[in-house]
Amino acid sequence: MAECVFHPGVETNVRCVECERPICPKDMVPTPVGYKCRECARPVKSATRFVKPQQWAIGTGVGLAVGLGGGVLIGWVLGIGFWVVYLGFGMLVGEAVRRGTGGHRTPGVAALAAACALLGAIVGGFGEFGLVLGTAAAAVYVLSNRW
Ligand SMILES: [Zn+2]
Ligand SMILES: [Zn+2]
Predict the structure, then answer these.
(1) CA gap 71, 115 in Å, rounded
(2) From the CB of residue 54, how many other CB atoms can be counted at a distance below 10 Å?
C-alpha cells in the first residue's frame, strides 16, 4: 500500500483521479469523475495542477529535442539571427514543453521550457541577445497561454 501524500505514515490504496497521488479518506473529495485529493478538487488550483513524473520526462525530452534541434538549425544550418527567429524559437520550445507535460501552465513547466530554450540557444551560438530573448519567450509563452 502507498502512503498518503498529505499524512505521512497513513497507508491507503486510493489514488486521486487527477494527479494519481495516494490519498487517505480524510483527503478524498467526491467529484463526478471519482475521488480527488483536496488540492485537485479546488477549482482555482486546476491551472497549476500537479504534473506527473512521466509528463516531466516527456516534456523534458520533447523540449530538449526541439530546443537543441532548433538551436542547431537556426545557428548552424541557416545561420540567421533576427529577433523574430529567436522569439519564434522560444515560443516553439515553450509549446513543445507545454504539450509534452500535458498542457500545464505552471512556473515549473515555464522554467523547464526556459532551460531547454537556453540550452538550445547556447548550442546554436545565438549570442547574448538571442539567448535572453529565446529563453524569455519560452517561459512567457508557457505562462501566458490561455487554452
Ligand atoms: Zn490530486
Ligand atoms: Zn491523508
Answers:
(1) 13
(2) 10
Pick the ligand that lies closest to the CA of residue 12: 2
Segment 24-63, tens digit of pLDDT: 999 999 988 899 998 888 765 444 567 888 999 999 999 9
* Contact residues for 9 (Cβ-Cβ < 8 A; gap 6+): 3
Q: At what angle do helices 53-72 and 83-100 cross, to 10 degrees?
A: 160
Task: Please say whether the beta carbons of 45 and 66 come within 8 A.
Answer: no
- CA–centroid distance, 88 to ligand 1, in Å, is 34
Extents of the domains making up the chain? 2-46, 51-144
Of all ligands present, the nearest one to the C-alpha of 3 is 2
> What is the pTM assigned to this prediction?
0.66
